[in-house]
Amino acid sequence: MKRGLTGKLLLYLALLAGAAVALLPFFWMVSLSLKPADEIFAPGIDLIPNVLAWDNYARAFAEVPLARFLLNGVIVCLGILVFQILFAVPCAYAIAVLRFPGRGLLFGAVLAGLLVPPHVPAIPVYLGLAELRLLDSYTALILPFVASVFGIFLFVQYFRTLPRDLIDAARVDGLGDWAIVWRVVFPTAWPAATAFAIFSIVAHWNDLFWPLIAVSDPDLATPPRGILYFRDQEAGSDIGALMAAATVVTLPMVALFLAAQRSFIQGVAMTGLKG
Residue 49 has what DSSP assignment? Predict the structure, then answer.
């Protein structure tokens, strides 16, 4: 009994230590966002500010159009997510439910697509958008990501767990495949859709690489791209305002995960039940 209790205690201590290491950069970011300049550059490391400099947050919104950057992030992330759902759900339904020649080969191509980093096709995609004169637009930020192989894979795994009788009953009622996808199958896939939405939104909200090369107009900058405007080659970076802006940009993702964590965990667990 004592040995089991000691083991659990050591496990909890290890988990707490791991959580502390993972969360330390976030605590440090929030701490810097609340410190005046003289404390930021003072020798030594203090997590708790001696004076709370709330004006860092006011400067974050005053020095750059941070609210505009946040709005751009919402538009881009929601635009990408909607199109990814529209593409991924029917594709996943076809692979998971329908029977046709080459289905296994097609799913293998989806798995192979998971191995390709998004940076690999960046140059040809950029050149294509340049030829179409679509750079410096919301289209340039959204279009390259409308088809998600990860989304297809995730929904395939979930749809394979659905009882076949559910789809057969829908066919008996006279529904075609398109109606079955959106009126029967997709409404049951909210846990998988929630999990995928969190993966997608977090990935594209935090993406700096593509917005950095696809747009140069400050009015189209997404949050990570907009934070770069705090950097000045002559005056240097305003660290307090920069950390305040980083905190503001991070908070929506934290709130999103906390609000949807139960559905997220359920969706991730259920998509792994059947291969």
Answer: -
